[in-house]
Amino acid sequence: MGIFDKLRNKKNVQVETPSATHYDSVSGIPFPAYKGKEPYMFISYAHVDSPAVYPIISEFNDMGYNVWYDEGIEPGIEWPEEIANALDRCSLFVVFITPAAAGSLNVRNEINFALSKKLPFIAIYTKNTALTPGLQLQMGSKQAILKYNMDDESFRRKYTYSFETVLKPAVKRTVTPTQCHLNSSTKKELEKVFTGSIAFFPEEDFEIDHGLLRKYHGNGIEVKLPESVQIIGGFAFHNCRNLESIVMSDECGAILDNAFISCPRLTNITIGKSFSSLSEGAFVDCPNVRFSYYKDRMPEKFDRLFPDKSIVSEIDELYQK
């Protein structure tokens, strides 16, 4: 298997990932789990399925549903009390079924708990999965959504219809979009009431914290990263469907897992001489991505980073935008 095949693989295997200060961006956590007192859904999933599950529950969250999930924290030997408490108080139990989930003791524990509490129950099959006789007996009468057999729009209609009987999205007022500063109180207030996207001042398209690019808020086709970006974090360019090209400065040394998810038009990432770490789970649903570097600025670890030379090329710095 070539390096390009590995990069498209949905397994999250990191290679010498530098440390960063925010757990959610480093780990590819898309949003904080809901902690309030309003009705919410509990998400049960196998952690190895995170690359497929996170974009879906991010959509739930974006649509206004309150979503609780364990944020990818590996449980210890005992079933975490926090998970049991979250299950006990939820209004809807949603489990993502895959072969990995069917074989997960933690997922089965969560299913058993939900059934014992007689919680509203929806199983979303992201892969064709043969259930064990025990799971078939437990879940046979529960509502199932076969996502792997649906297009995105059909799936969206199905889950919206299924959710609405027990859980409604938070009511938000639509306001006229306006520009505001990324980290201003205005932005925070708009997020509470505005259902659409918020426009930031152009120079603030990049949400950067201590060198970590947490999120790109723009809609560019060709994007040049600021020199202050040292690490491209998880979900930084999630669903940037217009994005075709990224130019990194010499200060940027790493791309983390889940950094680019569903960027179908992304075809080139220009790296600098400090680049040293490329996570294999960084490019989910990016089928055509390739890499380039400026002449005489090849990274020191080039051969280890790119053993498959067919996906990289040398370019003249004269053509840098």
Write up what this structure looks like.
It is a single chain. The protein has helices at residues 3-8, 23-27, 50-62, 81-89, 99-102, 105-116, 133-139, 152-164, 185-193, 302-305; strands at residues 41-44, 67-68, 92-97, 121-125, 143-146, 179-180, 199-200, 206-209, 212-216, 222-224, 231-232, 245-247, 254-255, 260-261, 268-271, 277-278, 283-284, 290-294, 312-315. With 321 residues, it is an alpha/beta fold. It has two domains: 3-23 and 175-319, Leucine-rich repeat, LRR (right-handed beta-alpha superhelix); 39-164, Rossmann fold (3-Layer(aba) Sandwich), CATH 3.40.50. Strands 2-1-3-4-5 form a five-stranded parallel sheet, with helices on both faces. Strands 8-9-11-13-16 form a five-stranded mixed sheet, with no helix packed on it. A five-stranded parallel sheet has the order 10-12-15-18-19, with no helix packed on it. α7 links the parallel β4 and β5 (143-146). The relative contact order is 0.15.
Class inferred from helices and paired strands? alpha/beta
Helix content: 25-40%
Rounded Rg: 21 Å
As laid out across the biggest beta sheet, the strand order is: 2-1-3-4-5
Shape: elongated
Strand content: 15-25%
